[in-house]
Amino acid sequence: MNGYGIYTVRNTEEIQDDVSLIIPSIESYEAAWDRYRTVMMAQSCNIPTPETDLLSDRSKAPDRAVIKSRYSIIESDNELSYPGVELIDGNNSVDQEAVIERMSHEPIIQEYVPSTGEYGFFAVYDQGSPVATFQHRRIRSTSYSGGASAHREAVRIPEIDRLGRRLLDKLDWHGPAMVEFRRDSRDGTFRLMEINPRFWGSLALGIAAGVDFPWLYYQLASGYSDDGVSDMGYNTHVQASYIRAELQHFGSVCFERGPSFVPRPGVVETVLSQLRSAPTSEHDLLDADDPLPFVYDVYKSVTALLDRL
User: Fold this and answer.
1) pLDDT attached to residue 213
2) d(Cα 102, Cα 104) in Å, to the nearest integer?
3) pLDDT band at 64, cuts 50/70/90?
4) Which sign does the torsion angle of CA 163, 168, 169, 175 carry?
């Protein structure tokens, strides 16, 4: 089971003479890459998590459950795959052998956390110390039932900062990482979902809000000391959208039928929400000096949506 990141970390000695590597130790990376180990470690330092088990350790799924890969990327038969997430009703039985075969490994099973919001804590660390941090609230995802962010807003919540730093400090982190939380609607607790031990897909929002993570990463890789790289403040309430993901979200509202316990918004409600946010949002890939990537991405996105009609 290998992703590109874990390959790089495991082979640091072979390539470090040719490139500057700002990456964590193999022990830290594997603890973050393995979602089951991440949850166990978080529980050990009093960070709230969903109830989590390996699939074979559960004779019966908890009510409203999530089955997800232990790893964001799986290698099987020299091919990479992205197993994704399955939402199931606890009253339904789970064919464990079929799921393990489908995902090419034994996944984890978690209780579904009813949520009032999904949040991300983002950071670049230098040998266990945070250089810069950032937070966002996810407003829309690629699917109405979940997935990568399509539209988000910069926020600053002390509890998320405290929990995110505690986890990355515990890992003695080095480099970029995203820590994902879900706010439990039952008690308001921020519960850890996972760590993405890499730069994240919504990177453009942090830059628009005032935290230039790639530049900070470059500075660290160029050998600047802490005196030359300092924690950067940022503007809250800045929003950003990824057009392709927004169209995927719209398509999910039109065509997908998720589990009954995940409310599906109406088509008109979705369109109005997207239209209201568009004029005041930053847009991933949009740059007046280089507009073609944005134009091409919009073209491909619209084409993909029309193919579903």
Assistant:
1) 93
2) 6
3) confident
4) negative
Q: Delineate the domains of the chain, giving CATH numbers in brackets.
A: 4-111 (no CATH), 115-239 (3.30.470.20), 241-308 (no CATH)
Mean pLDDT of 120-135: 94
CA dist 113 to 110, 146, 188, Å?
Answer: 9, 12, 11
Sign of the dihedral defined by the CA atoms of residues 187, 190, 243, 237, in that order: positive
Largest Cα–Cα distance in the chain? Answer: 57
SS3 for 48? coil
Eight-class DSSP state of 56:
G
For 96-128, b/e burial (b = at least 16 CB within 10 A) is beebeeebbebbbbbbbbebeebbbbbbbbbee
Token pair of 287 as six digits: 């740059």
Q: Considering the chain, what percentage of its residues have pLDDT values greater than 70?
A: 86
CA distances from 206 to 169, 241, 284 (A): 21, 12, 11
Say whether 248 sits in a helix, a strand or coil: helix
Q: What is the pLDDT of residue 1?
A: 40
Q: Which residues pair with 191 in a beta bridge?
A: 182
- Whether this model's pTM surpasses 0.85: yes
Cα separation, 99 vs 107, whole angstroms: 8
DSSP string, 121-159: EEEEEETTEEEEEEEEEEEEEEETTEEEEEEEEE---HH
